[in-house]
């Protein structure tokens, strides 16, 4: 069947009205975003037409909870664990809903008891009580001590004209975090939040709809945390006590009422359990943690030239990116005239020790001579109009069709198609435009009534599938590595996402703008994404979109941004105008600043890699808001311009134009050390830090060990033979160091090492010991350098009867198998310890 066009009028800047093929005559990459479209107006919840209060007619005990007869509806309250419950309210006979965001579906039933009287049904585990009021129906959650964690408001839950909704009680002390990718500040109390994946080019701090939908949040009340995941793929809405201090509510434009409740009481517990449910990240290849460079406009020669310049200027970097220019007239999985010799590009990148990543868009050009279009058409793989014809929308290739990623065989086909890229040396896949964006479409996307066919033959409309389109495409790209590059760790970067996308892809926050507002916004955006399971997150350093007030970012803005960008999980400079925005483009001072902080990132790669291991094990964010670590300190609840980079380093960036100092809050309960000066501070106070253009305020949590290494120009340039244990000690510090080959999937089969380090002040001496807990990987580490800050010159250093000799310089010590050197001016003691040292090392 020949594709049938379905156009919606498009208004471009200058009020030129276009439709149909007229769009293709005037559209170009330069004008396409002249007017960014937002979704159609919200459909408000009509509170005057809420469902009449339901009442429990009867109860049936299940192996993991209860089934309730509510008259016209029925409810399932299932206990997945002793601290997590799933609630479903359905029309009778309907099946419970499980979205593609859910990773774990089979949960062994926990031990629980059910008690019933004429007013209540009470389900109890060893850590959670679910108290169900029979009439009117409502749910209250209590901890094991009987404290109310969360409860339904008097308006309860139900459906309003097909829209599932839930009202919850709150009070003035409760704060809210998470919600995935959102603009504005960290604490979302008082926000009206919307979720509908939108190509929000050059969004602002008040933009409601951006690129990703993660309908999960964390409530923090009385210093105790809970999580709530509203698993609904339709457009959803969250009014977080904006309307009233007494309640908040959430609803969706359609679908079933399904949510998961997670009891903390620690934020860490909530994130861990939520990522058990939706999936934890897989360990990425180490190169993807290095610095990366991109531009919308690089041609093949540009990529090679820029890569060479990084090497010549000794600025570490690991990857270059090819934007849509590399394709043949934007046909996916092809190479075009701007990249005339991809085999040579592969050779050049290999010679320069650079990886390269190519963009991928889901729109497939309508072209009878294009193999991808031919194959998809032959196999009936496209999203359809309501009348059954393939939907055609206009994106970069012009008239385009879109794969129906809801079907497994379509995802499998798409995965295999990546061979055309991998065969030319592509190391990573960058999924863009996958909201999906459609130029001129309603809300800049497909019509709501376009149709997807599921594996079982059922038909689903776009209003249900839109928010998971990118998620499903990311799954296909991830599987593309498994099919075409078995045992090599995938690296997929995505713009659009749903809950659970973290198990397939890293997320970047889309087309930001080169201005100070956007630099400030990166911190709460990344922090809330991290709290929502997306540990691998970052932003376009320097800003992607050209600001209206200036031609390019100023040297000051870029310098401050590169300082922050070196300390986020995904670190990439990406821009879209002719003027250069590489680290050397702003003069020697900014080039030196860029080199300093990118080099520092590379020194810290062992620490950063281990933080990703923590994320893979527990869901812990790599970039964490202070409240994640210090939820019992109320001064952290609204702090959205500082963050923890891993467990030990606190970053307090300068994010205001012209500023050379800032106030820094030091969370209570620990001591802090100024990374640059060594000055120590008690927690629980605000200090002022002077910070010239080249200074990023960094503070180290006392009693920390930070593993680091020598600087490399790219990951894998040098074997890690000496691991530096950068130690800030007042009493006792420990670290469990994880190591594997950082590139393959062998770690999933047990090929890794875990070594526990412990450094302790005991009276007048310090002891160092290691415990090689797991040793299944052939490590290159031959020695450790214990670097002790604020130290005194020792009288002796020895392990059992082996006395360590004193070196006259750090260079001399580095040439020895063991020994020590004391830097009196810096008050730093370096102790070189063989990796096979089996005895405690005592420093007297």
Task: Kindly describe this structure.
By secondary structure, the chain is an alpha+beta fold. It has 4 domains: 58-278, glycosyl hydrolase (family 31) (Immunoglobulin-like, Sandwich); 318-490, TIM Barrel (Alpha-Beta Barrel), CATH 3.20.20; 625-698, Golgi alpha-mannosidase II (Immunoglobulin-like), CATH 2.60.40.1180; 719-843, Golgi alpha-mannosidase II (Immunoglobulin-like). 18% of the residues lie in helices and 32% in strands. The strands form 11 sheets. It has a 9-stranded antiparallel beta sheet, with no helix packed on it. The protein has an 8-stranded antiparallel beta sheet with strand order 4-5-6-7-21-18-17-14. Strands 22-23-24-28-31-33-34-35 form an 8-stranded parallel beta barrel, surrounded by 5 helices. It is globular, with a radius of gyration of 28 Å. 52% of the residues are buried. The model is unreliable at 1-32 (pLDDT under 50). One of its GO terms (molecular function) is carbohydrate binding. Residues 722-790 form the DUF5110 domain. Keywords: Glycosidase, Hydrolase, Signal. Residues 283-610 form the Glycoside hydrolase family 31 TIM barrel domain.
The termini sit apart by: 84 Å
Kindly identify the CATH topology of the largest domain: Immunoglobulin-like
What is the alpha-carbon Rg in Å? 28 Å
Structural class: alpha+beta
- What's the name of the CATH homologous superfamily of the largest domain? glycosyl hydrolase (family 31)
Task: Indicate the percent of residues in helices.
Answer: 10-25%
Q: Tally of extended strands? A: 54
The largest β sheet comes out as: 9 strands, antiparallel
Q: What would the average pLDDT be, to the nearest integer?
A: 95
**Strands of the biggest beta sheet: in what spatial order?**
8-9-10-11-12-13-20-19-15
Q: State which percent range the strand residues make up.
A: 25-35%
User: How many structural domains does the protein architecture include?
Assistant: 4
Shape: globular
* CATH architecture grouping of the largest domain: Sandwich
Q: What is the CATH class of the largest domain?
A: Mainly Beta
Uncertain spans:
1-32
Tell me the number of helical segments per DSSP (H or I, 4 or more residues long).
Answer: 14
Protein name: DUF4968 domain-containing protein
Family: Belongs to the glycosyl hydrolase 31 family.
GO molecular function, one term: carbohydrate binding
Domain Glycoside hydrolase family 31 TIM barrel: 283-610
